[in-house]
Amino acid sequence: MPFSTSSHDPASTVVPADPAEWIPEATLEAVAALSRAEIETLENAGIRPPFPEDTWRQCAEAGLLRLSLPRDRGGLGWEPPSLAALLEQLAARGTDPGFCFSLMFHWAATRIVFSFCGTGRQSDQRDLSRIETGKATVAVGISEPHVGSHPRKWETTAVQRGGFYVLNGRKAIVTNGPIADLFVITAVTADCGEHKSCSAFLVPRGTAGFNLTEPLELSALPSSPHCAVGLSDCRVPETHVVGVKGRAHETLARGLREIEDVYLSALMSGLFLRLLVLLRRLLREAVPSREPAVLETLGRLHSLVQAQRLLTREAASRCSPEAPRLETARLLTAFRSVVDLALAECAALPFPDPDRRGPPTSETRELESLQRDIGFLQRIAGSALRARERKLGAAFLESEDLP
């Protein structure tokens, strides 16, 4: 398979160039084709979740899992603008959405471990070296059952005993959990009533007292593996603290949320591009495709998708600890509003025709699946989105600057 990467990173430009300039187009097409074929085989065999492990392994061997690592840690040092552009192009070429979802979470997790928190000098080098070689998948456990990612309500604790921390609690819906080798787990290390100090810990799979549930089935993205995590007197060395003790929410959780939102926007933009390609093929064959109302809807939809891409690129270019968080938040909030408009335009199109004769084609099935997956992604972190909107509204009311 023609998987290969280059050390060239166009992230220094405001708008990233076409990823085909530094990732061969043959590689992008191969990832798309292999992921779809492997997942189809797994689904036909009744395997759940139908995660394409062989495609993932070949991506690791080609270095795609190390793109987000700093150069001094064995990676290619790609920044969010480049990774977001690559994610968009993979999705646009028809790479399975669930596979893309897992890939973006791995990139975000490895960036957090090495870049946001300065873990390299603190944690056990044997575990970190597995990430550096691209042979380890990383997952993050932050949200908890019934309380989500609100740190004041977290119940998972980490108590220091000698040179170890003992972790107890549960984490809900951990993306890539069933395939991960290393986990970043947040836990309360000090409870002062209204304020809880939280720390993050690197926990290798197989650690005593660290248990994974059976894979969870989501309503979309069926190939992306998820599970919950249980911790029962799980002992980890104090060298496995990720970042600054007691600052996990301020550094890791907030930083991860922002970078996940940027990658999620890139993924949705790519899925909309794929949807447009399928719509164009199908509508060219449809009788009413040249009717004025259809053309007007297509014109609005295409324009909205291009607006999504511009918002994503701008947000990705500002995704750094130095950039004003409110500016990035405005861009990401606007992106979600544009997605709502685009989904409404999709619903107004006359295809797929509910009165069509015969079984649905592979293209119509993919089109329906894309709409379902985009709708699911749009609902992710809904409470966080509303909190961000409230924060932006409050900042607007308090400001004296021109809107």
Termini separation: 52 Å
Summarize the amount of helix as a percent range: 40-55%
SSE-based structural type: alpha+beta
CATH homologous superfamily placement of the largest domain: Butyryl-CoA Dehydrogenase, subunit A, domain 3
Average pLDDT, rounded to a whole number, is 85
Percent of residues in beta strands? 5-15%
CATH topology of the largest domain: Butyryl-CoA Dehydrogenase, subunit A, domain 3
User: Any guess at the CATH architecture of the largest domain?
Assistant: Up-down Bundle
Radius of gyration in whole Å, from Cα? 22 Å
CATH class of the largest domain: Mainly Alpha
The number of helical runs is 10
Please report the total strand number as a whole number: 8
Low-pLDDT residue intervals, each spanning 5 or more residues: 7-17, 117-123
Q: Largest sheet, described in full?
A: 4 strands, mixed
Helices and strands, in N-to-C order? HHHHHEEEEEEEEHHHHH
The domain tally reads 3
Overall geometry: globular
Q: Report strand order across the widest sheet.
A: 1-4-5-8
